[in-house]
Amino acid sequence: MSFSVHGLSVGRGLGGGIAIGRAVRVLSSRASVAHYFIAPERVDQEIARLRDARHAVVDEMQRLQQSLTTQSSKDAPHELSAIMDVHLMLLQDETLADGVRHYITERHYNAEWALTTQLEVIAAQFDEMHDPYMRERKGDLEQVVERVLTHLQGTAQLAQTQATANLAREEPVVLVAHDLSPADMIRFKSGVFIGFVTDVGGKTSHTAIVARSLGIPAIVGAKSASSLVRQDDWVVVDADAGVLIVNPSERVLDEYRRKQALAAQAKAPSVNGEPLFALDGTPITVLANIELPSDAKAALAVGAQGIGLFRTEFLFMGRVQLPDEEEQYAAYSEVVLAMKGLPVTIRTIDIGADKPLEGDHVQAKAAHTNPALGLRAIRWCLAEPAMFLTQLRALLRAAVHGRIRVLIPMLAHEREIKQTMLLVDRARTELSSNGVAYGEIELGAMIEVPAAALITSIFLKYFDFLSIGTNDLIQYTLAVDRADEAVAHLYDAMHPAVQFLLEKTIKECITAGKPVSVCGEMAGDTSHTKALLAMGLREFSMHPTQVVEFRNSIKK
Hints:
The protein is α/β, with parallel strands linked by helices.
């Protein structure tokens, strides 16, 4: 069957089915702008917010321009005043104002979202201009919009509190961007988007992992997506096939709506919490990977038998001030209490590579030539012992409420293990000295560096359990950047070297009588289930959205 469409882009589908909606193009630099729908009765108030912000910027710039007249020509060149004139003209241009009002009035976008949407529309027009001088004015427009956004964000919290977020819409929206950081994805987690598409990214990049955990259709590595798609285009995101269709015909839409309906029926759980067994009669444990405490509810809903990986770095990302001990204690306790006695595996902060933190002291240390091989995960924690001790104390305190297994990422050296153990003991001592109650924890290590897999026997002397992070293990074994779509075809979980390291680690754990799990993407990929079971693996940890399919595959 052939279809006539405006455009088609192929990327790497992350699963989640099919999404059909209006495209919302977002520049990465403005991904953190609030995106929510306003109630119809708030349209006038939102337009007033925009008008007040614009007037504030105009007043600010006029005062600045007046101050230039009191300075010498050397200190205030004529060109600067001319630039101010251009910015004032752009600020008062009705093309910008009318477009923003349209998105607020007709689409019920909040003011910030409406402003950045109209900026995208006008910026595209500038790009198509033949006159180089006019094309360069796009930069002036972007600077003006940033000023208005700054003023708008001063009233954003009150406006969003008063608004009715995520109103039911006749026209659902799909986010299209060149790239999104994991922090941006978390910001959008409770947002209005029904799907995501990015130009770049690999199937196991951290952005992809978070997108998949949202349980909605997503495509990464669709190289031409942001240039092919225009603001408000109708798009179909087929995340199972990795295909993005732009402005499809009615015939194509009907076909994909039919597929949506069939997929919804297929996703209905046929099993929920039933015991699973391998062919030899040994029980199989299915755990869930989560990013935020609120995800624990979804894990229970699909019958997960515990949390196999709580990625704590998402508590730290997208903020300048790192969470203190009390905030972390509350977050970890929330998950433990929500899981009602089931085990909760909490990984210590794993930052670096494609998961940077904000804040001057963090950025300075994270600016490495090759961040994937630099100061990340446990290396960063050992370099920042005060921060690490804060997290360890919070984890120990939360263990009073239930069973916590603490997982240490990216260990490769025995001296790192010993340093970590010393800091855990120090955290206990500090709590005891201050009379603060804490519980017992099980301590485990992630096997995600080939060196660690090759010395599993040493790790087993120190740790209560091991968890294999296949995403990084594959990346480091094959020297393939898992976030780079140009080499994605070389990222191969079935490579003999990868299979050797997996089997070696699993068998050594079984021999030592220590629990071992796989918490990487391989765990939830049912095409690898039989191979992992044959190696002796009996503990799988995956996204909650993958649990039902995994359970059904075992039952077949």
